[in-house]
Design goal:
The chain is built from 18 helices and 24 strands. The protein folds into 3 domains: 303 residues, Alpha-Beta Barrel (TIM Barrel), CATH 3.20.20.80; 184 residues, Rossmann fold; 36 residues, no CATH class. A hairpin with a 3-residue loop joins β20 and β21. It is an alpha/beta fold. The strands form 5 sheets. An 8-stranded parallel β-barrel has the order 1-2-3-4-5-6-7-8, surrounded by 4 helices. Bound molecules: beta-D-galactopyranose.
Length: 640
C-alpha cells in the first residue's frame, strides 16, 4: 500500500485567476489528492434546472493538469435555498417537533422523497458529466452524515416512512404488517400502549414521560437505515457512470447510524480528524487530562477512530479532513503544538490510512469558518501546518509501501448498543462509546494494537483476544462465532443484557453461552462515588450484582464479584476507572500470551507489517525503551 497526502479545496470560494497557482503549489508541496465540490450546489445550479458546470470543468482541468487527482463530492449536504422553497417540508425536525432552519448545512430529512428525487437528479448530472473524466479519481457522497445531530428527524416524512419500515419488520398478510407481532415484541400491554394498526404509531418524541425503549430502538434502527438507503441511492447512480472508488467522510464521535452498513456500499471509508476540537468537545476525560493534552489532542481518540473506520472500510480508509491548526467550533480552540500535524499524519498511516488530506487548503476570510486554519493563511502565506505537511511529503518518499497485519486483540463495536445505552443509560452520563473507548485505551496504554470489528464478523481466527464491551444485545450469529474461537474473550459490562426487542432475556442476563452466572440486579452511581476494588482501581458509575458458584477473579472491597472467569471467557460486571481497566486488560493479555509494553503516559506504539512506530503525545521529551522522543516526536523503525 502506498501512502499519499491531499487537501480540501473550494475553487468556488476564490477568483479563477488564482486556481492555477494554487494547483501548482499543491503539487509542489507533494500532494496527490484534492477534494472539491461537496458544498457547491448553489454554484452548480443557482436556480432549478439552470446548470453551470463550466467553472467546475475548468477547476478539474486545472487541478488535474497540475498532476493532482480529484475527489469529487456530491453537494447534497447543502441544498440551496430554492430546494427548500420547493419542498418546505424537506427540513429535518428536532425532537421538539420544530423544523430545523436554512442558513447552515445538513438541513434535510433523510426520509423526504422529494429531496431524495432532487439529490438523484443532481448526482446523475454530476456523475454523467464527470464519470469518465480522467482527473476524477475518487468520489465522496454528501458530507459527514449525522454531523450536527442530523440522523434522527421527527418530521411528517419520517413518521410515514417509519410506519412503512415497521410494516416490513413485522410482516403480516399482504402489504400490511402484523400489528400483534409488534405489540408483543414491544411489550405494549404495558401502560395500555397497544395499537390496532400501523397508522397509529407515532414517532417517539413529545411523549409525556419516557417512551417505550423498544419503540425508540426500532425508531433508531429505522433512522440508521434511512442514512444507508440515502447513501445507496447516490452510490448506485455514480457507479452507473464511473469506475472510480466511492468514499464517504464520517465524523468523530458520531454513532447515530450504523457506519458498517453504509460502509458495505462503498469502496473506501474516510473520516474527519480534528484532535484538538474533539479533546475539548467530545473526549471523555477530566480537566487535568485535557490541560496536559490541550495542544496535542487525546493520545487514543484519533487512533480509536482510525481503527474503527479501517473496519468500516473493510481495510481501505483515509483521513479525508485533517486538522491543520486552530478550528473554530470547539469550546476552546488552541493551535497544535509544533510537530503535532506531522504526528497526526504519521499516526493515521501507522493505523493503515491510504491518504491523509488536510482541511483546508486556504483559510476562508468569510462566513462560518473564517476562524478555521488551513495550510495557507487567508493572504496565501503558508500557515504553520504547511511546513509539517511538506516534511511528511518528503518523508513519505523514503518510506516506501507497507501492508497491514492482524492485531492481537479484536474489539467488537456495535452501533445498536450505542443507541440502546442512550435509550436506557440507567445512570446519568453512562455512554456506550465512552465505555468502549476507555477499554480500547486500556489496551493501547499497554502498547497493544487493536482491530475493531463489526458485530457481523464471521471469523475471529488470528486473534489472541476478543473484547465485547457493553454490547447490550448479542445476536445468535455472533454468539456462535464467539463460541468457535479459542481466543480469550472479555465481555461486559451489560453485555447480552437485553433481547433484540429491548426486554430482559429469559433467565436473567447475560444471555451468553457457558457462563455459570446471572446478574440479579444493577446499580448506578453519581460521579463522585467510587467503590474500591481489592488490589487497586475503582468501580465508577455502574455496577452489576453477580450470582455465581465460581470464585470471582476480581472482587470489590465490599466482597462483591466484579470479574468472573469460565474457561476462555471473562466477564466484567462494572464500569471501571483507568487503574481498574489496566488490571483487567493486563490479565487478559497475560492469559492470551499477548506482548505488552511499559509505556510512559502519553506515549503510544503501533505496528504495520513492516514498521514499529513510537509517538510522543506529550509536550516534553520522553525516553521509551532507550529511545529519546522529543515533544510531538515520531519514530519509525523497521520491524526486527
Ligand atoms: C468538518 C466538515 C468540514 C468543515 C470542518 C471544520 O466537520 O466536514 O466541512 O466544516 O469540519 O473543522
Amino acid at each position: 500500500m502506498k501512502r499519499t497526502l491531499g487537501t480540501c479545496y473550494y475553487p468556488e470560494h476564490w477568483p479563477q485567476e488564482i486556481w492555477e497557482k494554487d494547483a501548482r503549489a499543491m503539487a509542489d508541496l507533494g500532494l496527490t489528492w484534492v477534494r472539491i465540490g461537496e458544498f457547491a450546489w448553489s454554484r452548480l445550479e443557482p436556480v432549478e434546472g439552470d446548470l453551470h458546470f463550466d467553472w467546475l470543468d475548468q477547476a478539474i482541468e486545472i487541478l488535474g493538469k497540475a498532476g493532482l487527482q480529484v475527489v469529487l463530492g456530491t453537494p447534497t449536504a447543502t441544498p440551496p435555498r430554492w430546494v427548500v422553497d420547493k419542498y418546505p417540508d424537506m427540513l429535518a425536525y428536532d425532537a421538539q417537533g420544530r423544523p430545523r432552519g436554512f442558513g447552515s448545512r445538513r438541513h434535510y430529512c433523510f426520509s423526504h422523497q422529494g429531496y431524495r428525487d432532487e439529490c438523484a437528479r443532481i448526482v446523475t448530472q454530476i456523475a454523467q458529466r464527470y464519470g469518465q473524466n480522467p482527473y476524477v479519481a475518487a468520489w465522496q457522497t454528501d458530507n459527514e452524515y449525522g454531523c450536527h445531530e442530523t440522523t434522527v428527524s421527527y418530521s411528517p416524512a419520517a413518521k410515514a416512512a417509519f410506519q412503512n419500515w415497521l410494516r416490513v419488520q413485522y410482516p403480516g398478510q399482504g402489504n400490511d404488517g402484523d400489528i400483534e407481532a409488534l405489540n408483543t415484541a414491544w411489550g405494549n400491554v404495558f401502560w395500555s400502549m397497544e395499537y390496532n394498526s400501523f397508522d397509529q404509531i407515532e414517532l417517539p418524541n413529545l411523549t409525556v414521560t419516557e417512551p417505550n425503549p423498544a419503540h425508540v430502538l426500532d425508531f433508531r434502527r429505522f433512522a440508521s437505515d434511512q442514512v444507508v438507503s440515502f447513501n445507496r441511492l447516490q452510490v448506485d447512480i455514480i457507479r452507473r457512470h464511473s469506475d472510480a472508488p466511492i468514499a464517504h467522510n464520517y465524523m468523530g464521535g458520531v454513532t447515530d447510524f450504523d457506519h458498517f452498513k453504509v460502509g458495505d456500499d462503498l469502496e473506501i471509508s474516510s473520516w474527519d480528524s480534528y484532535p484538538l476540537g474533539f479533546l475539548e468537545d467530545r473526549v471523555p476525560a477530566n480537566d487535568a487530562h485535557k490541560t496536559l493534552f490541550y495542544r496535542q489532542g487525546d493520545p487514543d481518540y484519533q487512533a480509536f477512530h482510525h481503527d474503527l473506520y479501517r473496519a468500516v472500510g473493510r481495510g481501505r480508509w483515509w483521513v479525508m479532513e485533517q486538522q491543520p491548526g486552530p478550528v473554530n467550533w470547539a469550546p476552546y480552540n488552541p493551535a497544535p503544538l509544533s510537530g503535532m500535524v506531522r504526528l497526526w499524519t504519521w499516526e493515521a498511516f501507522a493505523h493503515g490510512a491510504e491518504a491523509v488530506c488536510y482541511f483546508r487548503w486556504r483559510q476562508a476570510p468569510m462566513a462560518q469558518e473564517q476562524m478555521h486554519a488551513g495550510l495557507l493563511r487567508p493572504d496565501s502565506h503558508p500557515a504553520p501546518a504547511h511546513a509539517e505537511a511538506t516534511q511528511v511529503a518528503t518523508e513519505l518518499k523514503e518510506a516506501g509501501t507497507v501492508s497491514m497485519t492482524t492485531a492481537p486483540v479484536a474489539m467488537v463495536f456495535d452501533y445498536e448498543a450505542d443507541w440502546s445505552w442512550q435509550i436506557q443509560p440507567q445512570g446519568k452520563g453512562l455512554r456506550y462509546l465512552d465505555i468502549v473507548f476507555d477499554m480500547y485505551r486500556a489496551f493501547r496504554r499497554l502498547g497493544v494494537d487493536v482491530d475493531i470489528v463489526p458485530p457481523t464478523i464471521d471469523d475471529l481466527s488470528g486473534y489472541s483476544a476478543v473484547v465485547v464491551p457493553a454490547m447490550m444485545h448479542v445476536p445468535d450469529a455472533l454468539n456462535a462465532v464467539l463460541q468457535a474461537t479459542p481466543a480469550q474473550i472479555l465481555y461486559g459490562p451489560r453485555t447480552a443484557a437485553r433481547d433484540a426487542h429491548f426486554s430482559i432475556p429469559t433467565g436473567l442476563p447475560p444471555a451468553l453461552p457457558d457462563m455459570d452466572m446471572v446478574i440479579t440486579h444493577v446499580e448506578t452511581f453519581r460521579p463522585t462515588v467510587e467503590i474500591a476494588l481489592e488490589g487497586g482501581g475503582n468501580i465508577r458509575g455502574y455496577r452489576e450484582h453477580v450470582e455465581t458458584k465460581a470464585t470471582p477473579v476480581l472482587v470489590a472491597q465490599d466482597g462483591g464479584a466484579v470479574v468472573c472467569q469460565f474457561g476462555n471467557k471473562t466477564y466484567l460486571g462494572a464500569v471501571l476507572d483507568g487503574a481498574g481497566l489496566a488490571r483487567v486488560a493486563t490479565a487478559l493479555c497475560a492469559k492470551g500470551g499477548i506482548q505488552t509494553w511499559d509505556l510512559p503516559h502519553g506515549v503510544r506504539t503501533r505496528t504495520t507489517g513492516q514498521e514499529r512506530f513510537w509517538f510522543n503525545h506529550l509536550p516534553h521529551d520522553v525516553k521509551v525503551y532507550g529511545r529519546s522522543l522529543p515533544p510531538a516526536g515520531v519514530l519509525r523503525e523497521p520491524l526486527a
